[in-house]
């Protein structure tokens, strides 16, 4: 199987931009824990893979609109060299379904909400962040009521999911 890592090793770099830059929107419940970390992960992986991407995050609720990520999320990301301190929470908008290519939910509850809110004729493909990950755990637990160690664990989990999503999308663009 050709992976993106093997593709880079053989000299194939970047993405076919004739179809535009792939646009990912990662969605969790409040957009202060999981999806801001996932956005940072996608951005870092895109840079390391020499793949231009558009990445954003949102929450299905607007409760935390305008707030920065949870401090524990910022610390978990910073430990891995990812700065998410400039992100601000926002709610999901109808326009997101027409602007993004891939809208990825972090858990089944968020995915169900996305499906209910998805307008007819939308452009985006709805999916689960972890659906292509090798470990088979499709749910990313909400760490909001847990300790910092849970933020570290879900960061690592989401990194596996993001890598699998990017390899899938980027391999499809060079075939």
TrEMBL record:
UniProt keyword Protease present: no
Keyword Disulfide bond attributed: no
EC code(s) of this entry: 3.1.3.48
MF GO annotations: protein tyrosine phosphatase activity
Class in the EC hierarchy, top level: hydrolase
UniProt keywords, alphabetically: Hydrolase, Protein phosphatase
Active site (record annotation): 28 (nucleophile), 34, 142 (proton donor)
Family: Belongs to the low molecular weight phosphotyrosine protein phosphatase family.
Entry protein name: protein-tyrosine-phosphatase
Organism (species): Rubrimonas cliftonensis
